[in-house]
Structure to design on (470 residues):
């Protein structure tokens, strides 16, 4: 069993800090089923590769009663793929050997843990019981470029056909902790076979290690079913808990929180000014097919519907409740057929690749990014600018400098309790310029709302324009 993880981050040997394994020496670790070896085939400033190799104790494996069941043929306990194919053994080794990295800790370089870096993971022999299509459905929504090379059953006998084993390479700009969590959960899912008994404690593992990404993953039901070996009682429990995490809060407290920001901004009718500015920017791009990402209750969609330039308007949001409110407020059921055909409301997450969002002329992201924590903001960036790749993108976010002018906002407070951050103008410009450079866009900035000479306007807007057509 072999897993390699490479980076071209500079200096590339920072990978050793993240993994807590010195590139200058090989290390071995005792596991209940054999040994794990960590070594570095290459370790330079420009490129570094760490390898995790698992040596299975095949005799102890069988004597311990953990070998495959005896159906099929009498020697199946002794003749099987477990010593070579990536499986739940690999997941256990990742947790034991790279446990600190998996948990996202690095005392010596804490800033490095939160930094997305170029990473490439290669699994030499990964069983994909479900084929390449399932492999891609699991990893591509997480932002990975997937390369898969299928192995024949026997190269000497091509007529025997293909095996279920692939050499798989996953590439992304990501945090190492995220990559390890994805591998930890999804390797057993692809193998669809676990070397130990699945009990109630197993429910916690995918929920804990997939906390940041599993609730909104489009294949979450398949992931949970396969991880728990289709044990119905545990599968139902896990899916119910994921649904609770993903579900919008229907009670009045959530609506009260949403009104906090509106209450602060209401005297200057800032939301009206935002919608007008965004609609105007989209109009100036010449866009006809537009996306409203994080459309909420449909306010921008309503403004765009009044302009015949926009022939197709798609709104997407993770909250089903917000989409239901949007459908009522837009009165979609009672519109004339042609008008109704212009608008689509889609349920989905903004942090996963979604092919439904590709091919649009422009996208609007109005007061959304400040609700995303750093790992999800990075995933959102790739999902939008790398994969959906519209010709233009309009992004608005609060200007935190302006908060000092609101008497109703306590010092140091954010405008909404769900905001993960609020940026200064310099911080927003730094983020936007970096995104534009990474993905081939140019960017221009505009203020929205009354401007203070020293503190700027309450809302800041960036207009990204695609430089190429690739």
């Amino acid at each position: 069993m072999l897993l390699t993880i490479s980076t071209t981050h500079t200096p590339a040997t920072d990978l050793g800090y993240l993994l807590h394994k010195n590139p200058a020496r090989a290390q071995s670790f005792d596991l209940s089923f054999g040994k794990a070896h960590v070594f570095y085939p290459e370790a330079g400033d420009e490129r570094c590769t760490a390898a995790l190799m698992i040596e299975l104790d095949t005799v102890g494996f069988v004597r311990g009663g953990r070998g495959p069941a005896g159906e099929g043929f009498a020697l199946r306990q002794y003749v099987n793929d477990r010593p070579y194919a990536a499986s739940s053994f690999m997941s256990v080794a990742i947790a034991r050997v790279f446990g600190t990295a998996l948990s996202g800790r690095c005392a010596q370089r804490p800033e490095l843990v939160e930094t997305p870096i170029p990473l490439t993971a290669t699994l030499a022999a990964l069983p994909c019981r479900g084929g390449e299509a399932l492999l891609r459905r699991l990893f591509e929504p997480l932002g990975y470029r997937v390369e898969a090379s299928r192995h024949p059953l026997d190269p000497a006998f091509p007529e025997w056909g293909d095996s279920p084993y692939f050499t798989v390479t996953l590439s992304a700009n990501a945090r190492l902790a995220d990559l390890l969590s994805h591998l930890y959960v999804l390797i057993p899912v692809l193998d669809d076979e676990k070397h130990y008994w699945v009990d109630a404690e197993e429910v916690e593992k995918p929920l804990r290690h997939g906390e940041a990404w599993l609730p909104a993953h489009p294949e979450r039901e398949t992931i949970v079913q396969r991880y728990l070996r289709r044990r119905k009682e545990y599968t139902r429990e896990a899916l119910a808990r994921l649904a609770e995490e993903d579900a919008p809060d229907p009670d009045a407290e959530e609506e009260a929180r949403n009104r906090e920001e509106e209450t602060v901004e209401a005297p200057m009718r800032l939301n009206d000014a935002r919608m007008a500015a965004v609609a105007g920017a989209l109009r100036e791009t010449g866009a006809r097919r537009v996306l409203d990402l994080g459309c909420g209750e449909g306010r921008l969609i309503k403004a765009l519907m009044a302009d015949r330039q926009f022939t197709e308007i798609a709104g997407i949001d993770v909250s089903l409740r917000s989409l239901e409110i949007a459908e009522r407020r837009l009165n979609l059921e009672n519109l004339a057929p042609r008008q109704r055909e212009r608008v689509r409301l889609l349920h989905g997450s903004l942090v996963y690749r979604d092919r439904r969002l590709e091919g649009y002329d422009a996208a609007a992201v109005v007061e959304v990014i400040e609700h995303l924590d750093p790992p999800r903001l990075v995933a959102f960036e790739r999902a939008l600018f790398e994969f959906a790749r519209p010709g233009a993108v309009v992004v608005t976010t609060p200007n935190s400098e302006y908060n000092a002018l609101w008497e109703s906002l306590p010092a140091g407070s954010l405008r909404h309790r769900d905001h993960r951050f609020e940026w200064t103008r310099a911080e927003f410009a730094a983020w936007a310029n970096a995104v534009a450079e990474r993905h081939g866009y140019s960017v221009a900035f505009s203020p929205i709302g009354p401007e203070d000479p020293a503190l700027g306007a309450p809302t800041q807007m960036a207009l990204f324009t695609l430089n190429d057509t690739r």
